[in-house]
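Field: COMPLEX_INPUT
Field: COMPONENT_COUNT = three
Field: RESIDUE_TOTAL = 817
Field: MODE = joint
Values follow.
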Amino acid sequence: MPKKVVSGNYAAAYAAKHARVEVVAAYPITPQTSIIEKIAEFIANGEANIQYVPVESEHSAMAACIGASAAGARAFTATSAQGLALMHEMLHWASGARLPIVMVDVNRAMAPPWSVWDDQTDSLAQRDTGWMQFYAENNQEVYDGVLMAFKVAEHRKVNLPVMIIESAFILSHTYDIVDMPPQEEIDEFLPPREPLYTLTDFDNPIAVGALATPADYYEFRYKIEKAMEEARKVIKEVGKEFGERFGRDYSQMIELYKTEDAEFVFMGMGSLMGTVKEAVDLLRKEGYKVGAAKVRWFRPFPKEELYELAKNVDGIAVLDRNFSFGQEGILFNEAKGVLYNTDAKPIMKNYIVGLGGRDFTVNDIRAIAKNMKEIIEKGKLDREIEWYHLKR
Amino acid sequence: MVPLEEVRGMEIPENIKKRLSIPFEENFYAGHTACQGCGAALGLRYVLKAYGKKAIFTIPACCSTIIAGPWPYSAFGAPLFHTAFETTGAVISGIEAALKAKGYKVKGKDGIMVVGWAGDGGTADIGLQALSGFLERGHDALYIMYDNEAYMNTGIQRSSSTPYGAWTTNTPGGKKHFLEKRHKKKVIDIVIAHKVPYAATASIAFPEDFIRKLKKAQEIPGPSFIQLFAPCPTGWRSPTDKSIELARLAVQTAYFPLFEYENGKYKINMPNPKKEPKPIEEFLKLQGRFKYMTKEDIEVLQEWVLREWEELKKKAEVFG
Amino acid sequence: MAESPFKADIERVEKELTEKMTPGAIAYIPGSSVINKTGSWRVFKPEFNKDKCIRCFLCYTYCPEPAIYLDEENYPVFDYDYCKGCGICANECPTKAITMVREVK
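Field: COMPLEX_OUTPUT
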């Protein structure tokens, strides 16, 4: 299988090209920009036949993708932090109009103060927009994620947009080996899009997204939720098919690492889970019975997988590189909520780590493991939320 | 639901077709929910007549969202995409890009027309950035701003296209005589600053001129823009039967002169080019929204109208 | 995991609505607004005097509904199912062949 040494951003750009996207509308923002630069380069070199719309804002980037997707094209864009926040209104529009747009968001901290470094709050703040969210651990997952995203999004029972999320700089600008299957194999995996509707059927003209009165609006929302539920199945099917074709299985919405006999697990999303896996190996040598649970898909949320995991462990340390002010880490909040009405009651503690790109290392994870072990032995939380790095 | 072919007005008697100065085919359907005497609804009727079925419309938040029909109804006989307030320029850019990616012919004879239809608020205010982006990037599409000079759908608030002296609900007339003190923003001049291939003003009182301009917008490649003057009896506090008369007076007083800008050249399209403009009072007196204006206020507006008119004439003279 | 007490209702709603509700709120029937008879809004009604009509088509041209059609002889026909009674036709008629009279219902 052809391999390339590329950054996370270039992996995203190659995936968009290999997915044969037809329209790209995007606006520059650090650290996303090299994705769209690379795509522009493909076009300039005649390597890709893409209509490229260099829009005047991220809001218009999403709006143009919406127009393109409604007219039947496979549309792609990429953004980060402030840009994603500016798009917010149109994110709702994309899902409400049931358009399978795929976007890469490079996780970056929200300002002020200005920061261009890794932080998941930008994408998690878009939790309720009706977008699926996939968090990539490494460059390979960025590439694979984009290819799978189109297949999931365009599935006839789904028709919802997908956000593929990678970490600022840790992935976006760091080079790694990425396997890229031959184009004809990708084409077999991902055939041309068959839209739910198109604006170009002039014999049967349609009107999309008109006013819905209180008598009807409710059902349209319910349909989106049904599509999300379908997406849970489709994600697993597509992840399995991807594994069969290309050797990397994504049928699990939560990737479990050495959890079978684990006393407690670290749970988190994105690139920090690579460090966690490394730490798990070391900690096991040091006598800790630990594992890692990497939440790949945050939307739709893998409720059942989490329950299955939670049943069999004494504790879960939830690592959030994000925060919801006035409450707690967002993954922690979600995970606790899922387990409330179940019989699985592991001790759960929330560690807020790495905000704004602060380093999160194996030593940090060791310290957290020590703390978790004590808590489990005592059977009682010292505190529920810990701002782990705080300078005291 | 009534099938399309049973909708009345679809058959075209030949003798009528020959004599009419506008296309006979109706592609805008009755039963829509515009107010009585709505200029925007009439404008839509003309656009749908001009382009028939082979046009894709984008409508942002505005009265036309409602006029086009709540789900599952549609007053349109052409495809229509509803979008958010500020996005018309961007969405039509995306549609055009998709059509090109798919290999469709866009614009020109037999080409698909991509049409954005937005109000003055959605164009001159919140949608200005997306409009500028659309114009500057040179997409093959048409943006129509139907200008009723205020935010009518939210209940008559001022926009930057509201004229000096007009009452709106957030520039009311009161005991302290608070009025709209700013002159109407010249959106068309902003558009022309982009050096677009085609830009024009039009009025619902002059449908032949409007339809001719729509056809021209189809023929000329690149982005085109038409600012359509569309009276709103509800917002202007004017009798519903005066909509056409008002649109005509706006032209005759030179308050809203008809002109075209084509590849760098200005051309004035006034019905009687030699005639001096009528006094602005004739346009103002039919509308309740101007009732708070004093004699001095009217003079201020009159002076502005004539100065702008002179400027336009000069442009047509120098760059004609 | 706990089951929603509304599950039966959700299934029922889903069953009844899947036929009707279109994902993305798509209106599939162009011109379907015609089932909405806006003639009921009318306060004043256009009355037509054929003798005065010069068949200039201005009433037809300027009707925003459109609720005026032309017959085989080029005379206007007023469609009272949709005419909202704005009076534009009467105001624009050069020969005063159309007059607005209060609707009697």
